[in-house]
Design goal:
The structure holds two protein chains of two kinds. By secondary structure, chain A is an alpha/beta fold. Chain A is built from five helices and five strands, in the order βαβαβαβαβα. Chain A has one domain: Response regulator (Rossmann fold). In chain A, strands 2-1-3-4-5 form a five-stranded parallel sheet, sandwiched between helices. In chain A, α2 runs parallel beside α3. Chain A is globular and about 30 Å long. The radius of gyration of chain B is 15 Å and the shape is globular. In chain B, strands 1, 2, 3, 4, 5, 6 and 7 form a seven-stranded antiparallel sheet that branches. In chain B, α1 packs across α3 and α2 packs across α3. Chain B has a single domain, classed as CheC-like (Chemotaxis protein chec), CATH 3.40.1550.10. Classes of the chains: A alpha/beta, B alpha+beta. Chains A and B meet through α1 of A and α1, α2 and α3 of B.
Chain lengths: 125, 157
Amino acid sequence: MLAMVIDDSRAMRSILRRIVGELGFDVVEAADGQQALDLMGDGQVPQIALVDWNMPVLDGLGFVTSVRSRKEWRDVTLMMVTTESEHGQIVRALAAGAHEYVIKPFTADAIAEKLQLLGFAGAAS
Amino acid sequence: MSEMIMLEHRDLEDIVSQVWTSLMDQEPANTAPWDPVASDVVAAGVAISGCWNGWVIVETSQQGALDLASTLFDLPMDEIAPSDLADALGEVANIVGGSVKSTLAGTAQLSLPSVEQGPSTIAGLSEASLQVHAAWHSHPLRISVLDDNSKNMQEQS
């Protein structure tokens, strides 16, 4: 299974890559929402995307909205992984089509638990 | 009008502890002295704007930032590029800033992080009402919360 990590911080992408990689996912990275859409348009469509909110070019909410507007990507699971913790913003992201929400800082166990909740139990292989 | 921030010193200590424990797997020691050579300081800051306006700034030494980047990237220190160092410290400031923002009662936005290397140009830090001094892996850390009455990084650049 393919996971896409979308975050403008290379350090955060590195952390998330290690976590989901150890859970059995292949991982592709994008530095912002537009880069992620471009990768998906080129055929790298993940089963799950871990999406930061606050990014240049196209933010996480814009990415979620764009993905949800495309029927062919309706099966992509979207999980926000962000410092944005305002209740209203969480509701906005979920209403736009995100399935889960993780607030930074997080632990590897927290990411694994959320992935299990989303049906990626055990391993992704 | 900008609201008063309700964060107390103990709350900021808890935020720092939680961020370092989650990201670096080790809690920093609190109440360590802040005494690096000025030219050795690396600072990363994020602005909060909205119901409260101000900055959250994370400072450490060059070696501290290198150690921090090495930990986050899980790479040896000699493989850490200057851009990695700035990226890692910026992300730490982003997460600390987000945690500070979460304590506000109203709506606010968090900026993308900015990072300064070399002599700090941040004014007003010594007068910051809320400041935690700590040490991680023997590296000095200073985390400051400044309201918008203090001069900020953008004004200095």
